[in-house]
Amino acid sequence: MSTSIFPRMHVSLYVSDISKTTEFYTSFFGQEPAKVKPNYAKYILDTPSLIISFVENPERVQQNFGHLGFQVETQQELEQRLEVAKAHSLVSKEEIGTACCYAVQDKFWVEDPDGVQWEVYYFHEDAEFNDPHYESTDASACCMPPAKEEKPKVQLTDISFISDFEGEACTPGGGCC
Question: Where is the VOC domain positioned along the sequence (predicted)?
């Protein structure tokens, strides 16, 4: 059985402020970047096995692609990571026993300086349903897109018939309404 960390995933994100981003991710990942250059920082993580780099380019920042995240192996690891994230005031949301993406999970969310959401979760078991919260308009963080709000359809009524009332206007108490 191989203990190789390869292949390892690589992600590169555009950011608006490399200093704020580096400060955030150093706290979130609990380690300094492996490489820092002008307008660039790269972290090489063993757990999770990931290479992530950041390129300062405010014009290309795009936060609405969904979210990033990683699954931890144990409930204890989730609690430890949550404690560290709380100590750095990074946690934006906590969820315990939620059914997101058709799985029962405990998780927490953080958001980087450009609004990129990260989910850190512990998987309990598969579920045959998705928490209704994630199918509503306030679904700000989950792998499911927010459901489109159903608005009542209103059809304008053809009011040309008013001319049939011998010039009477439809006024309150006028009998036509």
Answer: 7-123
**What are the structure tokens assigned to 10, written together?**
């690589």
CA distance 30 to 20: 15
Beta bridge partners of 41: 36, 54
Compute the distance between CA of residue 122 and CA of residue 98 in angstroms, rounded to an integer.
11
Nearest to 116 by CA among 69, 164, 166, 50: 69
Dihedral sign for Cα 32, 34, 116, 55, please.
Answer: positive
Least confident window among 7-11, 37-41, 93-97, 173-177: 173-177
User: Rounded distance, CA 34 to CA 43, Å?
Assistant: 5
Q: Are 54 and 13 in contact (CB under 8 A)?
A: yes
